[in-house]
Amino acid sequence: MQILKVRQGDTSAPQRHRRLTHSRQLGWALNGPCSERSAALFALYKPMLDARQTHRDLPDAPPWVVAQLGQSLDGFVATETGDSYYVTGPHSLVHLHRLRALCDAVLVGAGTVAIDNPQLTTRRVPGQNAVRVVLDPDARLDGRSRLFNDRQSPTLWLCDARHAATARERLAALMPTDAAANHASTEVVAVEGLLEKEGLPCQYLPPRAVAALAERGLRLLFVEGGGVTVSRFFRSNALNRLHLVVAPVLIGQGRRGLQATAHDVMADCPRPPARMLILGDDLLWDLDLRA
Ligand SMILES: NC(=O)c1ccc[n+]([C@@H]2O[C@H](COP(=O)([O-])OP(=O)(O)OC[C@H]3O[C@@H](n4cnc5c(N)ncnc54)[C@H](OP(=O)(O)O)[C@@H]3O)[C@@H](O)[C@H]2O)c1
C-alpha cells in the first residue's frame, strides 16, 4: 500500500504522501481535505498502522492481532466441498491483500492449506509478503503444500511440541539432495502446550501461538481463516479486531464462518463497537474487540 511508504520526518516523500503524519498522542493521522471514502479507508487501517508504530517504538509492546473472514449472508466461508473461490468480490480481495502487506505474519489453519493450497503472498497491492504461518497443532499436513515449497516468503509450520518431530521428518523426506537450500524458507516451530487436550479436534490455545510468534519478532498478526481458526481465536479473546466481510451470496450448507460462544439470553450476547464499510458489493464489519 502506497501510504505505508510514508515515514515520520520523511521530507522526500512525494506530495501525495505528505498528508499522513504521526504524533505520540494521536498516532497516525490523515491531514487536510480528503474524500469521505479516503477517510473511511484510513480509519480502517489506522489501528494497524498505529500498532506497527508502537511495536517499532516499544520493543515490549504486546502483539496485536486482526482477523478477517469473508462469509455469505447465511454465514458460510466455503461450500461443503470446501470451494471458496470466491465468496467475496474483488474489492474485498484487495482489502485482504492490504492486510497481508500491513502485517508481520499471515496465519491460516491447516484445513485452509489442505483445501486451498494457498500462496498467501501480497499480489493485489504493492507491499511486502508477510511471513506465512500454518497452524497445524497435531501435524496433519503432509508438507507438500505450495507455501512450504515455493520459497516466496518465509513460512512457519506451527505444531504442538509433541508433534513437531513428525512435521520435521515430513519436510526432510521431501527434500531433494540439495535440500537445505530448497527448504531454507520453511521452518517447523514447536510450541510447548499449544494443544490443550490431546486427541480432541481444535483444542489448541491461540494465545500460545501468538506468544510463540511474538518471541520471533512477529507481533502484528493477520489471521486469514478459515472459519474454525478465526472462531477459535475469537472465542479465546486473542483478537484485537475482526473484519467480517459479508457478501450478498447464499451458500445453503458449507464450511461455517464465525462461530461465537452461545448465550441463552440476548442481554448476554456481546455487541462489540462496530463500523461498516462498503467494499464493492460486500459489507465489511470492523469490530473492535478491545473497546
Ligand atoms: N471465505 C474466507 O474468508 C475463507 C478464508 C480462508 C479459508 N476459507 C475456506 O475455509 C475452508 C477451511 O476452513 P476451516 O474452517 O474448515 O478450517 P481452518 O480454520 O482453515 O483449519 C482448521 C480445521 O482444519 C482441520 N484440519 C486439520 N488438518 C487438516 C487436514 N490435513 N486436512 C483437512 N482439514 C484439516 C481441523 O480439523 P480438527 O478439527 O480435526 O483439528 C480444523 O477443523 C476452506 O474451504 C477454505 O477454502 C475461506
UniProtKB/TrEMBL annotation:
It comes from the Bacteria. Signal peptide: none annotated. InterPro entries: DHFR-like_dom_sf (IPR024072), RibDG_C (IPR002734), Riboflavin_Biosynth_HTPR (IPR050765). Keywords: NADP, Oxidoreductase. Pathway: Cofactor biosynthesis; riboflavin biosynthesis. Residues 63-256 form the Bacterial bifunctional deaminase-reductase C-terminal domain. Pfam families: RibD_C (PF01872). This is Riboflavin-specific deaminase-like protein. It comes from Hydrogenophaga palleronii.
